[in-house]
Amino acid sequence: MARLAELQPGRPGSIFTSDLSVNEFLLVRQAGFRPLGLVLGSSVYHVGIQVGRWGKNQELGTLSQAMYHARELAMTRMEAEANVLGADGIVAVRLEVELKEWGTDIAEFIAVGTAVKAEHGGNWRNNRNQPFTSDLSGQDFWTLLQTGYMPLGMVMGTCVYHVAHRKLGNVVANIGQNTELPDFTQALYDARELAMERMQREAERLQAEGIVGVNLSQHNHTWGGHTTEFFAIGTAVRPIRADHEIQRPTMVLGLDS
User: Fold this and answer.
1) Which domain holds residue 107?
2) How far is CA 102 from CA 50, 73, 99, in A?
3) CATH number at residue 135
4) What is the DSSP letter of 119?
5) In this predicted model, what pLDDT tens digit does every residue of 223-252 receive, in sequence order?
6) Of which family is this protein a member (predicted)?
7) Would you say residue 18 lies in a domain?
8) pTM of the prediction?
């Protein structure tokens, strides 16, 4: 809180901090937003244990909830710091998981981004009256506004899934053959679908028109080869105004695309 107090706009001698590149910084300013400071949230979380049936495809709901809740805590704390600064939003957010040496079931979940304020006013907060969050780069954020859309918030969905082990008879029967493994295919398909569906539900709660910049990743963490997490994340958006028209972006001389 002491660090954030020194970043308060209008405070004599206050400076901003940002992890934006020089190009991103310039484009965010050109988009009409002023960086206020670097904001972050952290949660060191103990992920519990859940045992899946050896030969069955199934979601491990306890682990799914743990991975979601830990990220949500980090995001909420980052947003709270942005609120202290009076920010309208947070751009270029990075959401990371770092395993710690304190134990194989302990990880730190970190959210960090640059809080920004609209220079010409307007209501840029989402329907929860929270600063918008976006993992778009400074360039993509500028382009999004040029097209007449605004970010509402980062939305995410996760699914920790246990993929069934193959029976010995199936392993032996498939030796030396090119063949699809339908149980594996269905397991990975179902897990991705669950993560995507949960991300979409979050966007609906923000009354978004769509989600841009979606990234669907897979992480094994420390659970072993047959348990994996599918994580979907993107930026929910809506039109700035009902009659918006897409503008052709104006090139900025001296900047690399």
Assistant:
1) 2-239
2) 20, 20, 9
3) 3.30.110.70
4) T
5) 666 788 899 999 999 998 766 555 555 545
6) Belongs to the UPF0145 family.
7) yes
8) 0.81
